[in-house]
Amino acid sequence: MLEQGEAEREVLVKHGLSDTLLTDLATAVAEFDASVAETNSGRLGHILASAELRAVGDEVVQLVGMMDGLNRYRFQKEPQLLVAWDAAKHVVSGPQVAKETPAQAGEVKPAA
């Protein structure tokens, strides 16, 4: 539509179209296209980063598994160190989800 408007600019201006409307529209369309490109790039970056994190996480799990075998052998005669190792290898981390209170469960939030 913008291209058609540009092609018929003289006729449109003659019938009351603002001189700057098509220029402003072209600028807005260019900004929108840039925003879409940036959003797509950000989404791709997020997807790639997530895949990399999963790969690194898998590698860490594999390394801890190897360390487990080595440390179990190493600490077989020292039960207190073996217990400490068992505790250390089961550290839970990551996003912590807050539990909903009963008041929040029935709470109605406005749409975004």
SSE ordering: HHHHH
Number of domains: 1
Q: Strand fraction band?
A: under 5%
**Number of discrete helical segments:** 5
Q: What's the alpha carbon Rg, rounded to whole Å?
A: 30 Å
Helix fraction bin: over 70%
- The residue ranges in which pLDDT falls below 50 over 5 or more consecutive positions are none
Instruction: Report how far apart the termini are.
Output: 31 Å
Total strands: 0
The average pLDDT is: 84
Can you tell me the overall shape? elongated
For the biggest sheet, the summary is: none
Structural category:
mainly alpha
3D architecture notes:
This protein is an all-alpha fold. It has one domain (2-89). The chain has five helices and no strands. It has helices at 2-7, 9-14, 21-74, 79-89, 102-105. Helix 3 runs antiparallel to helix 4 (79-89). The radius of gyration is 30 Å and the shape is elongated. It starts with a helix and ends in a 7-residue tail after the last helix. The model has no long low-confidence stretch (mean pLDDT 84).
